[in-house]
Design goal:
This protein is α/β, with parallel strands linked by helices. Helices cover about 45% and strands about 15% of the residues. The chain starts with a strand and ends with a helix. The structure holds 2-phosphoglycolic acid.
Length: about 250
Amino acid sequence: MRKNIVAGNWKMNCSLEEGQKLATEVSQLVLDLGQKDAEVILIPPFIHLSKLSEQMQSDGNFYLGAQNCHQNEHGAYTGEVSASMIKSCGGTHIIIGHSERREYFQESDALLAEKINSVLSNDMTPIFCCGERLESREVNTQEAVVGEQIRNALFHLSADQISKIVIAYEPVWAIGTGKTATAQQAQEMHAFIRSSITEKYTNEIANGISILYGGSVKPDNAKEIFSQDDVDGGLIGGASLKARDFMDIVKAFN
Ligand code: PGA
């Protein structure tokens, strides 16, 4: 059975002190919730990982992740951080190919494929993001766009490797805009992604992969989106910066 996952992508927000406070609040709320039906992942800026990981050892109820990594293990790449470095600071998951990375940092599918390899070779979990821009949705080419992103960045993987990844469908037009895909639009795309994986690999593999939806998920729309058959949780941006909102989204599974 695939896992339900709710991941909070803090993006470039929170000082260390703010991040520690937010993580403490989330951790407490997760504890209060008791038995939870979704795995919770906090994805702060790199520089907070080590502190939050120490904090987690005492009161943690969540996993930690990073928002990006370099494709190489080490070397003369000023300003970059590798998957193994993230792992050494307590991170277990890494977002690869967020649309903000694709757009502002010109990350190509070929580069993302290399990054995925690096994350997997460190026994960590990539959260691979895909999603179409508004222009594609308007002319109904969203499946062609997402299909290509997935083929280019993931389909070189072995069956065993692809089984270890998480996918996040994030339509670019819904990120940080307050516009959410309808539950039906999310379901259609998630089903399409799953069927593409079935075609290339097997039904069993496709059914084991968690596919998250991202793009303006809020406490008041999470339940409907998460109730769709092929939606296994969310990658949450803005609403992950408020502990209560984030936890209300996690609770959408209970
Ligand atoms: P949002 O961001 O929830 O603020 O729309 C989602 C994301 O970018 O992962």
